[in-house]
Amino acid sequence: MTAGAPAYDGGVRHFLRDDDLTPAEQVEVLDLAASLKAAPFSRRPLEGPRSVAMIFDKPTLRTQVSFGAGIAELGGNPMLVEGRLAGIGIRESVEDVARVLGRQVATVVWRTFAQADLETMAAHAGVPVVNALTDDFHPCQLIADLLTVREHKGTLAGLAVAFIGDAACNMGNSWLLAGATAGMHVRVSAPEGYLPSAAMFDRAAEIGATTGGSATAVADPQKAVAGADVVVTDTWISMGKESEEAARVAAFAPWSLTEDLMSHAAPDAIALHCLPAYRGKEIAEAVLEGPQSAVWDEAENRRHAQKAVLAFLLERSTPPPTGTAGTGGAA
Ligand code: NVA
């Protein structure tokens, strides 16, 4: 692959991982999401319409639909780029694709495997690039999750969150970083070998030192959930891990979010799950459909959250110099 010089990245903001937003910016995005939820057509940064490329190299339902609807509500044109046809990194390099896309669209939204590829896209596109899930992070989901918690609890800072199950995945990492950014106390409970890396805990601690938040590993799921305000779980078999299904189902069984486990949380705790959910595995039907579930609000909030992310990035990005890149990118 031939890497050209970055087309233009000096004034362009991206959302590649949760800590790309400072604590103050996270509040700003959450406030904007809440106002867009109340008044869906009140911000039109994509008026024209300008296009947003949405590329999916992994399965999707909520992300494609919520970005598609949200981009339209922002005045734009959601352009689905078929990942298998584009063959990014296979048919042509990420760098070449980035430079082509940046001259056609205002923003690139990409769900893919390697975080490094997303970073390469961001370095060369000349327009904002948004992480629509990688193996390492799912930051748009976290804005939706935090919005949901704030709606139900009225605040974020100081709340205790228990993340139960496979924490060595995008959702575990994103909860550590986004939760710490919000000043929350994130407790992670997973079987041995399924915790976020030490580097991720260190980064969360670094952020927490500025916000009052914290991130800790708690081996016993009941202790992790004890008194928690929010209990979160995710599939035990993330996209790309299908061949490990049998081993994972066996290892994770004690971390299933059952009614009994949920009963150890605060009486007014809420349960979150980014979906798709596998009932009877990582979450019991009774919890998913029960009175403490905020899962369906959480799914709706993807649209409001992502609209706020897009508006924030577009409005904060400086247009690239004429003739370099990002014909579609200037706000
Ligand atoms: N950890 C899950 C999240 C799905 C939205 C996965 O990567 O498949």
- Computed CA radius of gyration, to the nearest angstrom: 19 Å
Would you count the extended β strands for me? 9
Q: Give a short account of the largest sheet.
A: 5 strands, parallel
Unreliable segments (pLDDT under 50, ≥5 consecutive)? Answer: 1-8, 326-331
Estimate the strand proportion: 5-15%
Class by alpha and beta content: alpha/beta
The helix fraction, in percent, is 40-55%
Order of helices and strands: HEHEHHEHEHEHEHEHEHHEHH
The hetero molecules present are: norvaline
Distance between the termini: 31 Å
SS summary, helix count: 13
Shape: globular
Mean pLDDT: 94
Taking strands numbered 1, 2, ... along the chain, how are they ordered across the largest sheet? Answer: 7-6-5-8-9
Show the helix and strand layout.
Elements: H1 23-38, E1 51-56, H2 62-73, E2 77-82, H3 83-86, H4 94-102, E3 107-111, H5 115-125, E4 129-131, H6 139-153, E5 160-164, H7 170-181, E6 185-189, H8 198-211, E7 214-217, H9 221-225, E8 230-233, H10 245-252, H11 259-262, E9 270-273, H12 285-288, H13 295-316
Parallel strand pairs: 1-2, 1-3, 3-4, 5-6, 5-8, 6-7, 8-9
Helix pairs in contact: 1-6, 1-13, 2-13, 4-5, 6-7, 6-13, 7-8
Can you put this structure into words, describing what you see?
It is a single chain. This protein is α/β, with parallel strands linked by helices and 331 residues long. It is built from 13 helices and 9 strands. It has helices spanning 23-38, 62-73, 83-86, 94-102, 115-125, 139-153, 170-181, 198-211, 221-225, 245-252, 259-262, 285-288, 295-316, and strands at 51-56, 77-82, 107-111, 129-131, 160-164, 185-189, 214-217, 230-233, 270-273. The strands form 2 sheets. The protein has a 5-stranded parallel β-sheet. β3 (107-111), α5 and β4 form a beta-alpha-beta unit. α4 (94-102) packs across α5 (115-125) and α7 (170-181) runs parallel beside α8. The radius of gyration is 19 Å and the shape is globular. The structure holds norvaline. Norvaline binds next to α7. Norvaline binds at residues 133, 138, 169-171, 234-235, 238-239, 274.
